[in-house]
Amino acid sequence: MGEPQPINSTFGRLAFGRAAAATDLRTRAPETKLPHAAFAPTSLKILHIMRAPLGGLFRHVVDVAQGQIERGHRVGLIADATTGGARADAALAELAPRLALGIERVPITRQLNWRDVNALWRISRRVKAMAPDVLHGHGAKGAALARLTLSAPNAIRAYTPHGGSLVYCPGTLTGGFYRSLERLLNPLTDLFLFESSYIADLYRTVIGRPRAMVRVVRNGIAESEFESVAPGPDATDIVCVGELRPVKAIDVLIEALAVLRQSGRRVSATIAGEGPEHAKLQAAAARLGLADQVRFIGHCPARQAFTMGRMLVIPSRAESLPYVVLEAAAAGLPIIATDVGGVPEIFGPQLAQLIPADDVAALVGAITAAIDDPEQMHGAALALRARVRSEFSVSAMVDYNLAAYREAIAEREVAQFT
Fold it and tell me: Which of 43, 140, 141, 210 is the most exposed place for a label (fewest CB within 10 A)?
């Protein structure tokens, strides 16, 4: 719901401290029998609601939906009809035959808009027809619509933020407005499924205590993604993959490349992604004399983009738990990333490798060290790959989500008799 702004470094560390950011709050294994599990039907009807079918959020929803279908549940999707383009259309068309509850595309604006009334009406009609057991909203807008519809009074409402309105900079009028909306929606939520401990802590800090069950279920990737990716013959020194938005801080990377050039070191880069800052970033590269060092290739599948650089740089100002870092780690690609959001949870014991956000000098130093000592970067990449393989499984992600649904359903049913 609007362009997320970065949390400043002091505020972003939160009262829970650095150790809490690396703590896995998942307290129950997916195979554990839940109390009163008999209340939940064997096959659940699950309806996922999101706004834009783009980026990591979209990947997450598709992965979770596919896993739920494979486990015998009936699943449906509702998504914005105006974003995503041909790539989203193709992905949804491939998934559609397996969705027992179908797909509904509804125009959903990014910012609050009077057209949200029509979106809520159309979504409510679909929800009423499907009569789901679970309404799972993703992102601020998708989750707001999931919780505001009155058409499925017996369904639990689950919320996965994916960053969203939680990462607005404190003290801004817009940020305060959206956090106020989050507080109003808090009591309408049956289950909070935070994708990182960082986001769970951030919710408590900027919104308040969640009024329902809380589980941290981190993003996961498939075993097939652990096949190594080798640099192509025209690979640049660096590849950067992400939306071209201010929060991704591609401007900081371009400035760092300019500083390196001034010091006599020519470092080449490939920027893979699309977004509103494309023209501005391209102009900045040209103005700083980097037109022959930086290539912008638009959208590119992550693993294909990884072949276009010898290391991944993610200079973000804010993140939740970015898939691109998990994917690059699985592919064995050396990574330079900023110490923001849930990124430390991915790096775990290696979090000392992370650099501060919005720090050009730190980024220059990290790039220089990586180029000067490729063996050290390769060793770090292998260690991170092993950690991701052990801790970030898509299968576990799906199982923990389902376990949490069932526990929330059981709690609601038990509450009716107490």
Answer: 43
- Please work out, in degrees rounded to the nearest 5, the angle formed at the alpha carbon of residue 43 by the alpha carbons of 38 and 49: 115
Q: What is the CATH classification number for the domain harbouring 37? A: 3.40.50.2000
The parent domain of residue 114 ranges over 9-220+393-415
Indicate whether 3 belongs to any domain. no
- My answer on whether 317 and 268 are in the same domain is yes
Count of structural domains within the chain: 2
3-state secondary structure the chain: CCCCCCCCHHHHHCCCHHHHHCCCCCCCCCCCCCCCHHHCCCCCEEEEECCCCCHHHHHHHHHHHHHHHHCCCEEEEEEECCCCHHHHHHHHHHHHHHCCCEEEEECCCCCCCCCHHHHHHHHHHHHHHHCCCEEEEEHHHHHHHHHHCCCCCCCEEEEECCCHHHHCCCCCHHHHHHHHHHHHHHHHCCEEEECCHHHHHHHHHHCCCCCCEEEECCCCECHHHHCCCCCCCCCECEEEECCCCHHHCHHHHHHHHHHHHHCCCCCCEEEECCCCCHHHHHHHHHHCCCCCCEEEEECCCHHHHHCCECCEEECCCCCCCCHHHHHHHHCCCCEEEECCCCHHHHHHHHHHHCECCCCHHHHHHHHHHHHHCHHHHHHHHHHHHHHHHHHCEHHHHHHHHHHHHHHHHHHHHHHCCC
Same domain, 278 and 403: no
Provide mean pLDDT across the span 144-153.
94
Q: Do 343 and 371 reside in the same domain of the chain?
A: yes
* pLDDT tens digits, 352-364: 999 999 999 999 9
pLDDT of residue 40: 64
Both tokens of residue 70?
């494979």
Q: Domain check: are 291 and 309 in the same one?
A: yes
**pLDDT greater at residue 174 or residue 104:** 104
Q: Is the pLDDT of residue 168 over 90?
A: no
111 in a domain, yes or no?
yes
Same-domain status, 155 and 104: yes
Mean pLDDT over 410-418 rounds to: 81
